Amino acid sequence: MAFAVVFVSHLVPFLGWAQQSELSPYSRYGFGLIGQLQAPAYAGIGGMETTLLSGAQFQPNNPASATYLNQTTFQASGIGNQMQLKQGDTSASAAFGSPGPFGIVVKRTSGKNALILNLSPYSNSGYAISRSDTYDGIGLAQERYEGQGGLSALNVGWAHVFKGSKFVQAGGDSIRIQSNALHLGIQSHYVFGQISQSSTLDIIDPTFLDHRNRFTAQHRSVTATAGMVYDQLLHVRYNDRGDFEQSVSLRMGGVLTPSTNLHSSLVSIDETTQTLGGIPVPLDTAFYSERLDYRARMPRSLSLGSSVHFDRGDGMRIAAGVEYKTSAWDAVALDFAPEMQADGVEWMASESMHLGVQFNPGNPEQRHPTWGKATYRLGLNRQLQPYAINGHQVQTQAITGGFTLPLVGSRSLSRLHFGTELGERFTEAGALEETFVRFHFGVSLMPFFKNNWLIPRLYD
């Protein structure tokens, strides 16, 4: 437990310092872009979180995934982004990076219980927009809109698995195998962070004063996330010598985060300024508002998914799944402060569809010692953000892929993870189109069997 406390104490300031992970004008609204960043293994399958789970990396959004791990696992990741923005004949590009989800699951080898400690991005806001125009009476003026920050999610939880078994025929004998399993998990869902926004009107004629508005919102909310995954063996076959040949299983799962209270500290200030040497100098305050404990609600979120898994005796594995997720932001929109609801923006229910495929090659005698042991992934997703701009909801769609490699030379089950996303973000009005390529890099570290972590050594 002392190790866990030290781990979390170092985790929180680091992610808060490096939260910036989007440079999108669509992140101007509300809490920013929500649910965009995943652990590398799950980014490769379209961001699925319910059933296509891995024994080498846990899914931070689904506590039930922790019991799929083989043993104690520490995982960390980083994300690189390349973005292209286009509006009419104007275009711009940007490249940036940020940390991804990271944490630790404490689990004994072949154990049925797991302790979860994790911190991951929840939403991201980052933009810098400027435009110039000529106005009657004042001449040329420049408008600037800037924002940064985001929210993070801290998870501390517990997971347990219940396993069922049965006897099956294998030649002239019968053997006992696992026929089903129920994975259950629950974890805290503490969302916290700060988002800062500013808008400036800079009139080039020095005889006119300029104007600036600054808005800062600190949010905090705590609830619980529950996850459930059920595995059912549909078919299994052994040969006459008792060797496993093939099996087919069905997996169903869901993740639920109930609605909860949101506590916010909101500070808004309007001021007249004078730009001197390119630096806006405050001259007078036109309006100031400070609300240190504004109460609102965070929405209920629900994910449901299903997948089919085929395993063969030579090591080949294929799994394919589908998933649907929704968050009822429209049901809590009326509780938000007016400062969080920009003109022309309407809060909507967010929805997303995810498709994913995982594949492990067979024929261990012929496959490459590294690439032949890899897990390969492909996925698709389509997401609707909870914001509609002038009646058009912000949409994101992406094609994804990735793979997991064994950490050669570690003599353990440690893995390297890679994921990539190629997608676009837009509205049906077509005012602004974003194209992005996102790269995920991560590692899952598991102890060598002679050096188990967090287990006292015994000496004669």
The Rg value, from CA coordinates, equals: 25 Å
Count of the domains: 1
**Oligomeric state as shown:** single chain
Would you count the extended β strands for me?
A: 19
What's the helical proportion of residues? under 10%
CATH topology: Porin
* Unreliable residue runs: 1-20
| Overall shape | elongated
Return the structural class. mainly beta
**What is the N-to-C succession of helices and strands?**
HEHEEEEEEEEEEEEEEEEEE
Q: For this structure, what is the CATH class?
A: Mainly Beta
Distance between the termini: 26 Å
Major sheet: 14 strands, antiparallel, barrel
CATH architecture: Beta Barrel
- What share of residues are in beta strands? over 45%
Molecular structure report:
The chain is elongated, with a radius of gyration of 25 Å. It starts with a helix and ends in a 15-residue tail after the last strand. Strands 2-4-5-6-7-8-9-12-13-15-16-17-18-19 form a 14-stranded antiparallel β-barrel. It has 2 helices and 19 strands. Helices cover 4% and strands 63% of the residues. It has one domain (2-445): Porin. It is mainly beta.
